[in-house]
Amino acid sequence: MSEHDGRPDRVGPWGPETPGEAPPPARERMFNAPWPVLAIVVVIVAGYALQARLAPGDEGIRQWAFAPADLDHGRWIGLITVMFVHGGWPHALMNALAALAFGAPVARLMGPGIKGPVLFFVFYLACGVIATLGYTAVHLHSAEPMVGASGAIAGLMGGAMRLLGPQARPLAPIFSRLVLSFGASWLVVNALMAIFGGPFMAGATIAWEAHIAGFVAGVLLIGPFAWLAGWRPVARL
Q1: Residue 144 is part of a domain; what is its CATH number?
Q2: Distance in angstroms (rounded) separating the CA atoms of residues 209 and 148
Q3: What percent of the chain has pLDDT over 70?
Q4: Are 68 and 142 a contacting pair, CB within 8 Å?
Q5: Residue 235 counted as domain residue
C-alpha cells in the first residue's frame, strides 16, 4: 500500500514500484513482451511478406511510400502508410527487433485494458508522423520517397530511455544522463549511417533526419502520454 494515498502501489513498466525504492533493473524476455508490441512486430514482418508478394520493387510500393513533395499535392495519408512498407527483409527485420526491444517498457507504462494499448498505438503513430515531418523539414518539396517504421521505432527508443536508470520513477528527466548519452550515441550512429550507409541496406539512403526527429518526439511525448495513462509524480516526504 502507498503511504501517500492508501491505494496499492502501481505496477510500473519495469515491475512493482514502492515509494522510496528504486525500480528493479529491466529484464525483458523476448516472448514476455506485451501484446501491443508483438502486434507491431507481426504487422512489420507480415506486412513486408505481403508487400514482397503483391507489390515487389520500387514501383509497387510508391503508392504507400512518402515523399515530401506529396504534401504539395495534399497527399497526407503517406505520413501514416509509410510506416507499413519497407525496403527489404533486412530493413523490416531490424525494425521488428528494435520494436520488440524498446516497445515493451513503453507498452507497460501505458497499462492494460483498452486504454493502455490505444495510448501505445497512438504514441507509436504520433512519433512516426513527427519523424516523417522532421525528414520533410530538411527535404522540402523533394520527390524522393522514403519507407519504413524506423522513425516511429526511434520514438519508442526515446520513450524507453526515460524509463531506464535510477532516476526513472516512472520517468527520468528529459535531461538525465542516460537520455543525453543515448541521444548523443544515436546522433553519432545516424551521422555514420548518413555518410557510409546502413548495414544490409544495399546502398539505400538512410533517412537519418527521421530517426533523430522520432527519438526527440519519443523523449518529449512520453511525459504527456504517461499522464494520460494515469501516472502522477509521487511526492517525496
Answers
A1: 1.20.1540.10
A2: 13
A3: 80
A4: yes
A5: no
